From TrEMBL:
It comes from the Bacteria. The modification N6-(pyridoxal phosphate)lysine is found at residue 199. One of its GO terms (biological process) is branched-chain amino acid biosynthetic process. InterPro entries: Aminotrans_IV, Aminotrans_IV_CS, Aminotransferase-like, B_amino_transII, BCAT-like_C, BCAT-like_N, BCAT_family. Pfam families: Aminotran_4 (PF01063). Keywords: Amino-acid biosynthesis, Aminotransferase, Branched-chain amino acid biosynthesis, Pyridoxal phosphate, Transferase. The keyword Zinc does not apply. Its EC number is 2.6.1.42. Belongs to the class-IV pyridoxal-phosphate-dependent aminotransferase family. This is Branched-chain-amino-acid aminotransferase. Pathway: Amino-acid biosynthesis; L-valine biosynthesis; L-valine from pyruvate: step 4/4; Amino-acid biosynthesis; L-leucine biosynthesis; L-leucine from 3-methyl-2-oxobutanoate: step 4/4; Amino-acid biosynthesis; L-isoleucine biosynthesis; L-isoleucine from 2-oxobutanoate: step 4/4.
């Protein structure tokens, strides 16, 4: 793409930026610029540009506001000790957005253009990438929305792809600790033939009421079961699950109706290298309950872009609970190995890291 750049005239002052980066939180501060490119059937993708960050002007009849035709990605940029800035497997995010776009009847953005767009914004706003201390990073949010002004139910004929970025602090304040889980037996996340494998906002919107249910029961996250039989574990509201057995193998729920996380696939490769073969298969909730009770399941952990890897504690449901596994050894070993690669503290033997600037 040919990308034009219009520099912000109201960029955040260095003193204020230093305050933000010292305690960035998550998703509350945004960089000085954003990336946009538009698509129409006759012109394809066009007018790629970096502009000052600011509000969008949308007609009340804009299609995305009515039919939720949108997809997004989540990824991070990391500052290494030498000052360079790197992304973690951005081409995989690009390929997943292609898959999501197909499911949402969107035009496909070429993965090379996706990575170029992300690189362009991160390089433009590289001063917003925090130092690595405390697992800080720059969270990058590419997203695609239907921007045609039209109320008919059909794929939009005007689409906009954007990239924004926000500095992020560590997911766990005060150190990593096991998350407690609530098993929802009323709500499901996705069904066969649905959008479960697409990264689209509707999947997250449908999880919110179940997350409220979990919070009301004193739990950190919600666990979803399959929609057909209500027997098989799928994923959490925003993370994938793994179960380590006493014979060293790891089981993770199979794909199809769950989101194929970038961290998920990376953990599978890392675990294999450490001598723990990973099985992708249907995993029943009874197998979970019985496994932790008998001791056959020795560790449970979850992974995602924000938390990286987190140990799982107890599982609760209406009328019962399953105890937390006794160990977190492999969980923390995998977590440290992945974080060390991301921040440049360990050799990247997988070729996962992508230098931006």
């Amino acid at each position: 793409m040919q990308i034009s750049t219009t520099a912000s005239t109201v960029a955040v002052a260095p003193e204020r930026l230093a305050e933000i980066l010292a305690n960035p939180g998550f998703g509350t501060h945004f960089t000085d610029h954003m990336f946009l490119v538009e698509w129409t059937p006759d012109r394809g993708w066009h007018d790629a540009r970096i502009t000052p960050y600011g509000p969008l002007t949308l007609d009340p009849a804009t299609a995305v506001l009515h039919y939720a035709q949108e997809t997004f990605e989540g990824m991070k940029a990391y500052r290494h000790d030498d000052g360079s800035v790197w992304m973690f497997r951005p081409e995989e995010n690009a390929r997943r957005m292609v898959r999501s776009s197909r499911r949402l009847a969107f035009p496909e953005l070429d993965p090379e253009d996706f990575v170029q767009a992300v690189d362009a914004l991160v390089e433009t706003d590289q001063r917003w990438v925090p130092d690595a201390e405390g697992e800080k990073s720059l969270y990058v949010r590419p997203f695609m929305i239907a921007t045609e002004t039209f109320l008919g139910v059909r794929p939009a004929q005007h689409v906009t792809f954007l990239v924004i970025a926000s500095p992020a602090g560590a997911y766990f304040k005060g150190g990593v600790k096991p998350v407690t889980l609530w098993l929802t037996e009323e709500y499901t996340r996705a069904g066969r033939g649905g959008m479960g494998a697409a990264k689209t906002g509707g999947n997250y919107a449908s999880s919110l009421v179940a997350q409220q249910e979990a919070t009301a029961h004193g739990c950190d996250q919600v666990v979803f079961l399959d929609s057909q039989e209500g027997r098989y574990v799928e994923e959490l509201g925003g993370m994938n699950l793994y179960f380590l057995y006493d014979d060293g193998r790891i089981v993770t729920p199979e794909t199809g109706t769950i989101l194929e996380g970038i961290t998920r696939s990376s953990i599978m490769e890392l675990a294999g290298k450490l001598g723990h073969p990973v099985e992708e298969r249907r995993f029943g909730i009874d197998e979970w309950r019985e496994g932790v009770t008998s001791g056959a399941i020795t560790e449970i952990f979850a992974c995602g872009t924000a938390a990286v890897v987190t140990p799982v504690g107890s599982l609760k449901w209406d009328g019962g609970d399953a105890p937390a596994p006794a160990r977190t050894d492999l969980t923390m070993k995998l977590r440290q190995a992945l974080v060390d690669i991301q921040y440049g503290r360990a050799e990247d033997t997988f070729g996962w890291m992508h230098r931006v600037c």
